[in-house]
């Protein structure tokens, strides 16, 4: 479906203007505005006096975007964890040891002429002693307690086995919008252009002097907002822009549309509060200034712009208003109306992390009638515009973001940003939140696909010299790139002062044409901008291929694949993302990440303790029993009750250990078979006296007083 309400329109009719359409082929990506995606909820329709609307199904099942997402959730690549691999190996070796004991007991019993049924019982007893049946239950206990503690701090888990893996995380990927930063954008200000020169930035767009300006008229009309049950809905950016000018939007009712047999225009006008009281404006003046939106060319992510044709009430000629990506808008304007320092001003804003939108306007010829406007091609409108200025939007960092990232850095956990947003904005946010330190250099890798017989290539630029307004070339000689000096050891990574940044297109080209560079780039890559949902998943896989334990924290449907693929995925939203993610946080902030890692470490260390205790206990008991079976009297360890009590008390007491209060730089070992773990196996010897029966007159043929039993028990 769609993340926000979007206006969908019919495909243009090729018979009306065949020249403009040419041999254009339908593509769901290019023709997004004409496509209803699987999962879309239709909340409002316009009435066309009983005309039928024809729809053509282009994709079904797993071919749809929703289907691909569901498939990645249902059939993820299995995540391999060393602890579980080692556990299976260890149990296998215990089975081999048990087999040896089994054969020894059988042979020894036959030589001592023991009855057959006793041989069977004693031999099988050896196997159950060696391979502890309580091990799975004991291992699960730690995870269950950790899951309970996570629930108390508002983190819900649908895949408990992942808790242990979270104790190993050494890299966390973060989405930007809604995760590191606040969800919405706020209007920071506007910067108008007059006589091809930028005026000073203004904070408010709803001032009295600008009320009837073309700049405000563009903000009032150039959007795809609609009223749903009386409430303005649409793109959050459009919503903020329209709210900033304080105008009113009125739409035609179904009855009015049916009456005129064509769509009635949406009308916008200033609210009464905007008119100055001092002038004692008449009602007529208040109501006379209104603008009708005659035709809308919706926003296209391919074209990076949207355009509307509007008409001020009482005016003969119509106006065209356009808004979109500043570079695109500037290229469609008369060059004499674009300020000379346009690129420098724009870069200054994007470097500071602002989202910038440019506006343009053009008076249309008087010969363009209502009917002609309804059939005209957008290319005929979107040229020779007058550049009007910039709208600057701000995406604020969440309050807790910098502190959480600092905690992760102190614990030697690397942080990476994966976002669908603009590259310079993403780098700016990464600097603001401490992901990239002020003294660190950022190198942008711009990969170009093969074209006109030329091979694919990569251009390297320093992010701070990317300005197009500087005369010197910002390119770096590839020999100087520190990618050649990448350390094999992840521990040395903290020493590096370089960060790589790239966008989704470059990432795709590098994956396809520069496979050998991928490990080196992901080892130092910090910002990945304009990433598509499947590219986020590919990045997580690339990081896992260089032996990182990857965590992913996101909040939207576009993060689902990566959340599922990562070793530990944490969703900050209870909507689509929580379906795919092993963990969901009730509080929509990244403060849940260190909490999860701490609990993961506690559960992991508990698992190690339990495993060591159980394994040692089994081997000691196995050796003791084997030695006793070799005794001519065939005695065995007796009265295990107090030992079993101690065993279970120990196991569950260990599981109750909470996590340490802060993250430290040293991580737990990842596998069972590691030096520190094998070296520090300390046996918990319980001080118990040999078993003593209360009533010794009660004779039992199996109860034989002997020193071997007592000695081995001690």
UniProtKB/TrEMBL annotation:
A GO MF term: metal ion binding
Q: Which domain of life is it from?
A: Eukaryota
Main localization of the protein described in the UniProt heading: membrane
Cell location = Membrane
A GO BP entry is: intracellular calcium ion homeostasis
InterPro entries given in the database record: ATPase_P-typ_cyto_dom_N, ATPase_P-typ_P_site, ATPase_P-typ_TM_dom_sf, HAD-like_sf, HAD_sf, P-type_TPase_V, P_typ_ATPase, P_typ_ATPase_HD_dom
How does the record say this protein sits in the membrane?
Answer: Multi-pass membrane protein
Q: Where are the transmembrane segments?
A: 87-106, 126-146
Cite the entry's keywords alphabetically: ATP-binding, Magnesium, Membrane, Metal-binding, Nucleotide-binding, Translocase, Transmembrane, Transmembrane helix
Note the SUPFAM superfamilies from the entry: Calcium ATPase, transmembrane domain M (SSF81665), HAD-like (SSF56784), Metal cation-transporting ATPase, ATP-binding domain N (SSF81660)
Q: A cellular component term (GO) from this record?
A: late endosome membrane
Q: What is this protein called?
A: AT133 ATPase
The upper taxonomy is: Eukaryota, Metazoa, Chordata, Craniata, Vertebrata
Which gene is the coding source of this polypeptide chain? Atp13a3
